[in-house]
C-alpha cells in the first residue's frame, strides 16, 4: 500500500504487480499520475441509497492497470461492490464502507484504495449519511495508471514484486 500521508505510487517502472486473485504477473512498463476528478452520483433522498452504480470512469484501457483512492466529498457512505461472479468470500455481520470520516482523516486513506484491471466491472452503492437527504453525492478519485504487460512467474524472479488484490472481500450478507 502507499504511504498514508501522500498518494504515492506503490510500484515503479520495472516492478511487477502480482494480482493474487488471478495469479497473474504484470510487468510495469510505464506509470502516470492520472490526477484527480470528482464524480457526482446525484441527489439521494433521506436515508436513501443508490444501488449498483457502475463506476465506468475507473475502467482502464487494455494493457493498463488503475490504482485509485475513492474519497467521498459529500456526507455519503460509499459501499464498494464487485460483480457477483467475482465474489471470493462474505461476512454476514459486517458491512464495509468509506465515508467522509475516512476522507477527512488522511491516515485512513489507504482504506479507500482499489485496483482495477481492464475488463473488470466495478460498482458502488452510495447512501445518504445525514438522515435528511443530500443534493449531491460527490466522490473524489485520485489515481495512477500503469501500462503493463503480462509475464510469467519466471520472468518476475529477481524483480520487486508488489502483491495486490483486485477484488475486495465482499462484506455484508450477499444472498
3D structure, described in words:
With 175 residues, the protein is mostly beta strands. The chain has a domain at 31-144: Jelly Rolls (Sandwich). Helices cover 5% and strands 44% of the residues. The protein has two helices and eleven strands; from the N terminus they run E-E-E-E-E-E-H-E-E-E-H-E-E. It has helices at residues 100-104, 153-156; strands spanning 16-19, 24-40, 49-54, 64-72, 76-82, 90-91, 113-117, 122-128, 138-151, 161-164, 170-171. Strands 7-4-9-2-1-10 form a six-stranded mixed β-sheet. The chain is elongated and about 55 Å long. The two termini are 31 Å apart.
CATH fold call of the domain at 31-144: Jelly Rolls
Query: How many E-type strands?
Result: 11
The largest beta-sheet arranges its strands as 7-4-9-2-1-10
Instruction: Provide the structure class.
Output: mainly beta
Q: Which CATH C-level class of the domain at 31-144 is it?
A: Mainly Beta
Distance between the termini: 31 Å
Percent range of helical residues: under 10%
Largest pleated sheet: 6 strands, mixed
Order of helices and strands: EEEEEEHEEEHEE
Compute the CA-based radius of gyration. Answer: 17 Å
The averaged pLDDT comes out at: 85
Strand content: 35-45%
Task: Detail the poorly predicted runs.
Answer: 170-175
Helix segment count?
A: 2
- Gross CATH architecture of the domain at 31-144: Sandwich
Global shape = elongated
